[in-house]
Amino acid sequence: MRHLYLHPPESPPLFPEVEAVASARAGLQALERTSYRVAIVELPLAGMSPEAWLTAALSLRRGLSVIFVGQSVAEAVRCLRGGASDYVESGEKAFLLAASMGPLLTPAPEPWRRLLIGDSPVMRPVLDMIRLLGPRRSSVLITGETGTGKEVVARAIHAASPRAREAMVSVNCTALPEALLEAELFGHVKGAYTGAFQARKGRFEEADRGTIFLDEIGDMPVETQAKLLRVLQESGELIKLDVRVVSATNANLEEKIDRGKFREDLFYRLNVVPLHLPPLRDRAEDVAPLLAHFIEKVCRAEAVPGKRISPDAMERLEQYAWPGNVRQLENTVERAVAMSGERQMLHYGDFSLPLKTPPLVTAAPVTESVEVVPTEIDFAATVQRLERTLIDQALRRANGNKKQAADLLRLKRTTLNAKLKSLEEVA
Question: Which class is domain 281-351?
Answer without folding.
Answer: mainly alpha
